[in-house]
Amino acid sequence: GDLVRPFAAGIDGASGGVDPAGVVSERRLSDLRGLFRDAAALERAVGEGDEVVYRVVAAPVPEVEGEVPFSVTTIEAGRVGDEFYMTRGHAHPEPQGEVYFGLSGRGVLLMYDGEEVRWVEIRPGVAGYIPPGWAHRTANVGGEPFRFLAVYPGSAGHDYAIVAEGGMGARVVRSAAGYEVVEEPGG
Ligand code: S6P
Ligand code: ZN
Questions:
Q1: Is residue 17 within a helix (H) or strand (E), and if so which, with residue range?
Q2: Residues whose CB falls within 8 Å of the CB of residue 3, separated by 6 or more in sequence, listed in order
Q3: Ligand 1 center to residue 146 CA distance, Å?
């Protein structure tokens, strides 16, 4: 098919906007059932307004081989029980790497290869590297929205079932120090 023509996009780290934008998607608490440890706390929060946990604004680049799609994710500040607001998480079934770049706020990029858990903190000016084959999820561990730019190969694909069913091997929870990453089989 036709490749995209050259363009520049504005990336607004204060709003999470991408201009021009392509697909925009929103995930609410009710879209995250089964992912948090405290299912009862999740259902209470769904009943109390089912707020948007995160939004992804993609640039107008198609997910096809050769292209390099990019998008900005905004995760709101909040918790379900002790666990920080987070993305669903996925792996790229065509094992290919991905780069995250922090724009605002503070988050944890959690990665899992099925055996080993690794994580890095993402802040403005920090790039996180996700190697091929590692499932990944981000959590907002701060008190303001956490925003980052993601850049990945267009042919990578997205496998959500692997995380929904097998977990990430760890959870990002509140602690006296602010947050901690707790390894947990199936978590
Ligand atoms: C895509 C990249 C991100 C996520 C986004 C939402 O490969 O990793 O743009 O899609 O952060 O997370 P999720 O797990 O709902 O796709
Ligand atoms: Zn990804």
A1: strand 17-19
A2: 66, 67
A3: 13
Residues in the chain, overall count: 187
Q: List the end-to-end C-alpha distance of the chain, in Å, as a whole number.
A: 41
Question: Which residues lie below 8 Å from residue 157, measured CB to CB, with a gap of 6+?
Answer: 63, 92, 93, 94
Residue 3 has a pLDDT of 85
Q: Which residue positions in the chain have pLDDT lower than 50? A: none
The parent domain of residue 37 ranges over 10-183
43-50: long-range contacts at Cβ-Cβ below 8 A with a sequence spacing of 24 or more?
45/80
For the chain, what is the domain count? 1
91 CA from centroid of ligand 1 (Å): 9
pLDDT at 1: 58
ipTM of the complex as predicted: 0.99
Domain annotation covers residue 3: no
For the beta carbon of residue 103, count every other beta carbon within 10 angstroms.
23
Instruction: Assess whether the previous peptide bond of 185 is cis (omega < 30° from 0).
Output: no
Name which residue sits closest to atom 11 of ligand 1, judged by CA: 73
Number of helices and strands (H, E) in the chain? Answer: 2, 15
What's the CATH code of the domain at 54?
2.60.120.10
